[in-house]
Amino acid sequence: SAGRQTKILYRAPRSHEWEALDHDRALDMIADRFLEARRRHWQDADERGNRVNRTLGVASLGGATIDNEENYLIKKLFSAAGAVQIENQARI
Q1: How many other CB atoms sit within 10 Å of the CB of residue 77?
Q2: Which domain does 34 fall in, by range?
Q3: CA proximity to 88, closest of 71, 76, 73
Q4: Which side of the chain, N or C, has fewer Cβ within a 10 Å radius?
Q5: Above pLDDT 90, what percent of the chain?
C-alpha cells in the first residue's frame, strides 16, 4: 500500500521529531540496549548462594503466529543470554 512505512523511525527521549535510521544502526541500538539490560541485571548467585547465572532484565513473549522452529530458536537465544522469563502465547 502507498501508506506503508518502509523506513525504521526512531524518536529520541524527550524529542518531538522522528529520524530515519538505517538497519545496521537500528540493530546496533537494539543489541546495545539488550546487552546493557542483561549486564545491569545479571545474577551469578541467588540469595542463598546457589549459582544461577541468569538475568531478570530481559524477557521474551512469543506469538502464536510463529512456527515451531522459530520458537525453538528464540527459546535457545534467550536461554543462552541467561533469560528465565520466556513465554509463548500458544502455551499461555
Answers
A1: 12
A2: 1-40
A3: 71
A4: N
A5: 78
Report the amino acid identity of residue 8: I
CA atoms 12, 19, 24, 3: torsion sign = positive
> Tell me: the pLDDT tens digits for 35-58?
999 999 999 999 999 999 999 999
CA distance 57 to 55: 5
Same domain, 26 and 51: no
Number of domains in the chain: 2
Q: Are residues 13 and 49 in the same domain?
A: no
| pLDDT under 70: residue ranges of the chain | 91-92
Same domain, 28 and 60: no
Residues 24 and 47 in one domain: no
How far is the C-alpha of 79 from the C-alpha of 15, rounded, in Å? 35
